[in-house]
Automatic annotation (TrEMBL):
Matching PANTHER family: NAD(P)-BINDING DOMAIN-CONTAINING PROTEIN-RELATED, PROTEIN YEEZ
Identification of the protein by name: 3-beta hydroxysteroid dehydrogenase
Species for this entry: Paractinoplanes durhamensis
Domain of life: Bacteria
Xref: Pfam families: Epimerase
Chain ranges of the NAD-dependent epimerase/dehydratase domain: 3-217
Amino acid sequence: MRVFITGGTGLIGTAVVAELLGHGHTVLALARSDDSAKAVEAAGAEALRGSLADLDAVRAGAAGADGVIHLAFANDFSSPEALGQAIAEETAAITTVGAALTGSDRPFVVVSGTPWISGRASTEADPLPTDGPVGGRGRTVTATLALASRGVRVSAVRLPRTVHNEGAGGFAGLLTTMARQSGVSGYPGDGAQRWPAVHALDAAVLFRLALEKAEPGTSWHAVDDEGDAVRDIAAVIGRRLGLPVRSVPAETFGPLGPVFAANQPASSAHTRQALGWEPTHPSLLADLENIQP
């Protein structure tokens, strides 16, 4: 299968490209810079120059592919306005891909976060949140899944709060960055809230399985660790960096403060049973031991 991918040079995208190539697919990856294009080509894929905001490039990539995986996101959490702009850019790109694939029965795998449900771990059957700081992403993915009725084999892979590799990535990676900057390994509230996690190489396998096997309109959870207490995550970070560990105000985390403070474990039982997905790489707390002081 010739697969068009956005976000193919990020932590997750790099793993997905390698996974696809390793299983006989060819890959066309959107590349917004010369360096990104070189990285794509060095990995064995073909580069298509353009950014997520370049809708003509996005349209061309999708139109010429047998399937599409969308991963790109600006990841600008510096302010509510910047986050809103990133979500709007992503929505326009996803809508463009959906239009290009309508009526073709080709697969389109989109990405979202796992939802959070009061009192229990969320499952693949739970709806995505459509309010709050990242509610716009939930609304976009929910609308995109409706393309299943318009001849698109669309599915959603829901990623946990932390997708990691060698101690880097996701919310835990943000905690590490903030700890280096502030001199404190901080966590919001009492730190008892739980965040799910998965290794990037395991997540990549699920993206491939969804592309190859998922039924239209389905959602899947790329979750290995159902939920680690945030204070335990912060404790490993603090120990590795030689920094004190303590609670800090949720406002410390900017627009993501309410999300960081939420208890949000997630299950992947249905995903494992239905798609035969089984994580094999290190858990988050073990992988954080790779953080260098």
